[in-house]
Amino acid sequence: xxxxxxxxxxxxxxTSYFFLKIKAAFPGKTR
Length: 31
Description:
0% strand; mainly alpha; rod-shaped
């Protein structure tokens, strides 16, 4: 289970980083 939790946490961090990139690319479309 620890591996799954780590994988989920890593995926969440990757997703948040991806959204940060989108916000940086489109600061007006995010709202």
